[in-house]
Specification:
6,7-dimethyl-8-ribityllumazine synthase, 169 residues, alpha/beta, Rossmann fold, binds the ligand Nc1c(NC[C@H](O)[C@H](O)[C@H](O)CO)[nH]c(=O)[nH]c1=O, 44% helix, four-stranded parallel sheet, binds the ligand CC(=O)[C@@H](O)COP(=O)(O)O
C-alpha cells in the first residue's frame, strides 16, 4: 500500500460552485500536461464544473507568482473571481544554480501571494533532481511507480476553497 500522498479527503466535498484557476508553466511540457490533466480530472470528480476551471499559462516556473497574481486580478476585474488558484510548474535540476534559485524564490513568492490575493494558492511545483523523478511524480514513468501529484493538487484546491476560500464563511 502506498503511504505517501494525500490519500482520502477528510470528508465529501461538493465543488460545483467553485471557480478554479490553473496557471501552468510551459517548461517540461509533457510532465506539465500530465499534472494539469490529473488536477482537472480530480476536480471534476469532486463536482467542479468544467466551465469553471480556467486555464492560463506562463513561460516558466519563475513567472508563476506574478502570473498568478495578475491572473487572479484579471478574473476579479471581469466579475468572475476565482476561489482558488493552482500554479503548476516542473523544475528539474541542471548543472548550474538556476534550479536552486528558482525553486526557492518561487516557493516563497507563491506562499506569500496568499496574503496578497486572499484566496488559497496551492503549491503545484515539482522541484526534482532528475527527469525520472518528475516523470514518476506525474504518474507517467514506465514503471508507474508513483501517483499523479496533480490529483492531490486538485483535491487540495477543492478542500481549501470550500473550507477557507473567499465564500467559505
Ligand atoms: N529550468 C527551468 C525553468 N527555467 C525558466 C525560468 O522559469 C524562466 O522562465 C526564465 O528564466 C525566464 O524568466 N523553468 C521551469 O519551469 N522549469 C525548469 O526546469
Ligand atoms: C535556463 C538557464 O539559464 C540555464 O543556463 C540553466 O542551466 P542549468 O539548467 O543547467 O542549471
Amino acid at each position: 500500500m502506498a503511504v505517501k500522498g494525500l490519500g482520502q479527503l477528510d470528508k465529501e466535498y461538493d465543488g460545483s460552485k467553485l471557480r478554479v484557476g490553473i496557471i501552468h508553466a510551459r517548461w517540461n511540457r509533457v510532465i506539465i500536461d500530465a499534472l494539469v490533466d490529473g488536477a482537472i480530472k480530480r476536480m471534476l470528480s469532486l463536482g467542479v464544473k468544467e466551465e469553471n476551471i480556467i486555464v492560463e499559462t506562463v513561460p516558466g516556473s519563475y513567472e508563476l507568482p506574478y502570473g498568478s497574481k495578475r491572473f487572479i486580478d484579471a478574473q476579479k476585474k471581469k466579475g468572475e473571481p476565482l476561489d482558488v488558484v493552482i500554479p503548476i510548474g516542473v523544475l528539474i535540476k541542471g548543472s548550474t544554480m538556476h534550479f536552486e534559485y528558482i525553486s526557492d524564490s518561487t516557493t516563497h513568492a507563491l506562499m506569500n501571494l496568499q496574503d496578497k490575493v486572499h484566496i488559497p494558492v496551492i503549491f503545484g511545483l515539482l522541484t526534482c533532481l532528475t527527469e525520472e523523478q518528475a516523470l514518476a511524480r506525474a504518474g507517467i514513468d514506465e514503471a508507474h511507480s508513483m501517483h499523479n501529484h496533480g490529483e492531490d493538487w486538485g483535491a487540495a484546491a477543492v478542500e481549501m476553497a470550500t473550507k477557507f476560500g473567499p465564500n467559505a464563511f
